[in-house]
Design brief:
The chain is an alpha+beta fold and 397 residues long. The protein contains 13 helices and 8 strands. Helix 1 packs parallel to helix 3, helix 4 crosses helix 6 and helix 10 crosses helix 12. The structure holds flavin-adenine dinucleotide.
Length: 397
Amino acid sequence: VTRLADADLVSAEIDGLLARFPQSPTWPKKAFLNAQYDAGLAWVHFDRAYGGLGLERQFQEMVKRRLAEAGAPVTTATYIAVNQVSATLHAIGTDDQKRRFLKSIFTGEDSWCQLFSEPGAGSDLAGIATAAVHDDRAWMVNGQKVWSSGAREAKYALLLARTDPYAPKHSGLTMFIMDMRSVGVEVRPLRQADGGARFNEVFLSDVEVDDQLRLGEVGDGWRVGMLVLGTERAATSDFFVRPIEELLSLARERHEAVSPALRDEVVRRWIEARVAGWTQHRQDSEPQRGRSDVLAAIAKVVASEHAQRLSETLAAVMGPAAQVGLDYEAVYAKDMRDEGPASFRSMSPQQFIVRARAMSIEGGTNEILRNIIGERVLGLPQEPRIDKDPPWNQVPR
Ligand SMILES: Cc1cc2nc3c(=O)[nH]c(=O)nc-3n(C[C@H](O)[C@H](O)[C@H](O)COP(=O)(O)OP(=O)(O)OC[C@H]3O[C@@H](n4cnc5c(N)ncnc54)[C@H](O)[C@@H]3O)c2cc1C
């Protein structure tokens, strides 16, 4: 009964929103997205004051479907912002932070990036060295980050920094919101194997961050970081998707070149894609989604490895065409204009085949996630972690 009432409420809000925007070929995009947020239809599971209706997240699917049917505009916000940054801000941000940042994330006005990984700390994220020291006025940040996706166009960053070098490595960290236009922030693009340059190095020299922009308690940065990464990993089954129809139609077009063994492989990919689709529906109707690190780790391993197998089968079906036709310079130019592909669905198949290799690395490597699954699901013995308890500054590096 409650669910029916909730569904009616969402439906009524959608009707009300659409009634305010008589459909025309040109929707006023910004005004529409602002109104969608105010109607609580940005993230239905968020609080009413912050773009939500306080309902279960499964109702977002209804919003997505109905607005798509009406041809309404879709947010252009980057995935990092609209997915993990928004969820983290909503979960632990102060009221001021939520008021200041959530709406402009949804409308796509402000872009965000994650400044976590460093040259000396990727898998061992708790070992980061970027320091934030509080002086009389503000936090002073110094250090270097790397592999920072979207940092060039980002207005704000979630920054993980070490605030207590004398504490054990996990407990000396704090999360901040950093304005990327601050004095002392230098962003340098890095070139990727697919021609693009979404990645960057970010150098931080005496960057001032106001204490009002601290996200969570001092020393609680590890927990906050895990919340961000858990949400990122949980979302990969939506994100790492390439339509299976593309593979099927290529296999049909090239049927003379597709051997019986390769046809078997195509069918296996189709079965996997169907199972992945159902698993995603189950995940979407799970109110606790994103909360559990362990479920998120499993989701990420499964989604990335399926996408990589799909890319290999695509390459086999395409034959030599998979090797040519990736215009590195065009991909680079597009990225430098900050017009990189919005999703894996819209990339050329050649770019997807190369880009898919990174899926088992980003958001935590699959080896690290298998460690988490081994220890926390299967109860296997823990990895030896000799650097866990001593003060971070006494660990040799
Ligand atoms: C597409 C993409 C986007 C990214 N975007 C961002 C971003 O926006 N912000 C950001 O901060 N970072 C980002 N990253 C960085 C990413 O989080 C790191 O690359 C990742 O955590 C691995 O760290 P590393 O590259 O330093 O590799 P390393 O940690 O040096 O690992 C090297 C290899 O050793 C293995 N390994 C390491 N430790 C263990 C262990 N204990 N047990 C078993 N195997 C182990 C790893 O699995 C890996 O195969 C991105 C990466 C990619 C590929």
